[in-house]
Amino acid sequence: MHIGLIGGIGVAATIVYYQRLTAAAAARGVARLELTIAHGEIQELIRNNLADRREEQARAFLPLVQRLNDAGCDCIALSSLGAHFCLDELAALSPLPIVSAVAPLDAYFVEQGIKRIGLLGTRVVMRTRLYGQLARTDAIALDDEIEILGQTYQDVAVAGACSSGQRERFLDAGRRMIAAGADAIVLAGTDLNLAFDGQDPGYRVIDALDIHVALLADLAAGRVSLGDVA
C-alpha cells in the first residue's frame, strides 16, 4: 500500500506524522513503507479555512493529489485536521481515495468508554465540534475563548514551535474542560504535540494524530483494506 501524504500544513505536524507513521509501520512488521509526501502551503490553507472557502482549498490541494497519483500512491491523507474542512469537496475531485483523520475518532472514543471530550484545535474544529462528525460522543469547547485559542494554535502551527506561555494556555484550557465534565482532552490539531509532548497535565490527553497514524499503518501492513476506511 503506497500512502500519499499532503504535508507542510504545517511543517512540524508533517515531521511528526513521518516519525510516528514510520515507527508504527515498523512495529507492525512492514519492512518497507511506501510513502510519498507532497508539500502544501499553510498560509493558503489558513486563509481559506478562516473564510470557509472549501471549494477553493479543494482546488488548491488537487494538483498535490494529482502529483501523488502520478507517483503511484493508492490513497492520500491530510496531515492537518484543520484541512479536513474541505474533505467532501476534495473527495469529489480526487482521483485517489482519502483516508480521513476525523472519521475513525468517534468509534475510538466509544471503544475507550469516553462519553465526552474537550476539544483543542483550529477555530473551525472547536466551533463545529470536529465538523459535526461525532455521532456517539459529546464534545465541548471553551466557546468564549475559541478565538484566542484558535489564534494561539495558528501561531504555533505557522512557527513550528510553542512558547511556555502558549503551552500553559493550552494546558489550562484542558484543565477547565475537564472540570466542566470532559473525560479526556483531544488534541484535534496536529501541531498540538508541540505543546503537550513530554507534559503531564494531570488529565487524559488523546492525540487525534496517533489514531490517524495507527489507521494508516494498519493499511500499510494490510490489516485493513481501503474499502473499510475510505
TrEMBL record:
<protein>
    <submittedName>
        <fullName>Aspartate racemase</fullName>
    </submittedName>
</protein>
<keyword id="KW-0413">Isomerase</keyword>
<dbReference type="InterPro" id="IPR015942">
    <property type="entry name" value="Asp/Glu/hydantoin_racemase"/>
</dbReference>
<dbReference type="Pfam" id="PF01177">
    <property type="entry name" value="Asp_Glu_race"/>
</dbReference>
<dbReference type="InterPro" id="IPR001920">
    <property type="entry name" value="Asp/Glu_race"/>
</dbReference>
<dbReference type="GO" id="GO:0047661">
    <property type="term" value="F:amino-acid racemase activity"/>
</dbReference>
